[in-house]
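User: Predict the complex with pantoate.
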Amino acid sequence: MNVPIVRTISDLRRIVAEWHREGARVAVVPTMGALHEGHLSLVRAAVDRADRVIVTLFVNPKQFDSATDLTGYPRNEAEDVVKLAPLGVHVLYAPDAAEMYPQGFATTISVGGVSEGMCGAYRPGHFDGVATVVTKLFLQTGAHLAFFGEKDFQQLHVVRRLVRDLDLPVEIVACPTVREPDGLALSSRNVRLSAPERQVAPKLAGILFDTARRIEAGAAAEGALAEARRAILDAGYDEVEYLELRGADDLAPLAAADRPARLLVAAWIGETRLIDNVPVQYASGGIGPKI
Ligand code: PAF
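Assistant: Here is the predicted structure with pantoate placed in the model:
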């Protein structure tokens, strides 16, 4: 099925108003394109839960902290359309930058708390850009449901916070990270990896999962994280930006997995920055963590 492409807010509003009149449940899957199986899993989940599905494609300049990262971001709308065609998407909403941020645009949505530290510390302004565009996309699409991947775990928390704080009438649905068979988390940035870097890249996920198991089994978090950092560098990564244990439901920094937690990492391999995260279970009454 061909996916109709909508470029303007007014055209989108007309279509969505009709859906609302029919009583349809509308879902949105926000993306920056360069679609991979991770995005498509969000689309499939949206198609399962909603009557009408909008996929958005907008490479949001406000969330890039480096001009070279923005210009080098992979873009291929024609291929994206082909990937979406069999999935039952009702509209691909792909506005240009002038439609999203017209002359004189001067408003920023800034979420505190969960946006601080980790990617928020290393990518100044990134989450303001995400929160601003996501708020606009929610208002433009009038969606009842919005689908986000756990791969961007801090982003998911930022979006949840802004929806709560601004009383936006949209339910956020989180979907699990999709991985290559060798464990590498799918990301639009993976296409930038050279062949040798691609060999090294999946070791990050292996180290994260091992470290999570060690912490669950009672290893002290500080020591386990220090060893994991060394292992990531020894594996061939060039830099570990952060590797942190945080509360799964509030992203509070943790010294031990004394409640459900998440291990989150950002690391550089050559010119490519990869992020990943894995759950750390807490079995109350089980082996306690040694602090
Ligand atoms: O996760 C992404 O692709 C982007 O941050 C999002 C949510 C589409 C906002 O531009």
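The chain is about 40% helix and 20% strand.
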